[in-house]
Amino acid sequence: MAYLEIDDLKTYFHKKSGMLFSSTVETIKAVDGVSLHAEKGEILGLVGESGCGKSTLSRTVMQLQPATSGRIVLDGVELTALPSHAVRRRRLDFQMVFQDPYASLNPRMNVFSTLAEAIRQRHPSASGKKLAGRVAELMETVGLDPRFQRKYPHEFSGGQRQRIAIARALAPEPKLIIADEPVSALDVSIQSQILNLLKELRQQFGLTMIFISHDLGVVRYLADRIAVMYRGKIVEEGEAEQVFRWPKNAYTKELISAIPSMSTLH
Ligand SMILES: Nc1ncnc2c1ncn2[C@@H]1O[C@H](COP(=O)(O)OP(=O)(O)OP(=O)(O)O)[C@@H](O)[C@H]1O
């Protein structure tokens, strides 16, 4: 069994429309029978156009959105079968990195407080000394000078803020990181720095990651395998290079040919 195993996962929403006496309930199949897997230390790229269900899929995997049916197993534990009190604790095993680090960081908390709070989620009784050491270590891991730990988010550049967000995601020692468009709000020159950092982290710590992006070039650079999502379903999945060079599905071909530089990369 793979480290992360998603099996026939469905997440449906029911939307009421119409007036009181003539209302109908529409079922939105945001995630409609998705099966995916990732080995430990693997980066799985998830691509697809806006509205195809990527966010709902990641929210369901993170146990923030109940699944309608299907199974999610992480490191041998079936999350979809856990009682709710156990789910809360298990949530620590998943951390997210979002598109906009400025929106996702608390502007009133300096780097030390942000990271210390995240460390305490896993180690509630960590001593002051232990916190200080771990904060410095985390900052160094993501390429930030620990001397800046008393600074606030607005005192950093966009790329540095994303480094803080990545350090915060690492702090509770997660088993899986879901990065949702983590570089799309950054300048192109900074994007590659953050992508390289994610690559290094994977190498250093065997981090397992689902990397969500609409930018296939970025996904090709980072991901080992790619899953292409379309209208709630995975329409293609395979080794990154294979999917890019020999896409089988018509929608994947369309996505690749939509990137001018990609269609000539053979
Ligand atoms: N809470 C909800 N209630 C009803 N419908 C929802 C809800 N969340 C998502 N949807 C619908 O589910 C479908 C998938 O949405 P989702 O946000 O998962 O797509 P996405 O691929 O992540 O899009 P984006 O890249 O724009 O975030 C859409 O049709 C959306 O309108």
TrEMBL record:
Keywords: ATP-binding, Nucleotide-binding, Transport. Gene3D superfamilies: P-loop containing nucleotide triphosphate hydrolases. Residues 4-256 form the ABC transporter domain. CDD domains: ABC_NikE_OppD_transporters (cd03257). One of its GO terms (molecular function) is ATP binding. The keyword ATP-binding applies. Belongs to the ABC transporter superfamily. This is Oligopeptide transport ATP-binding protein OppF. It comes from Haloferula sargassicola. The gene is oppF_2.
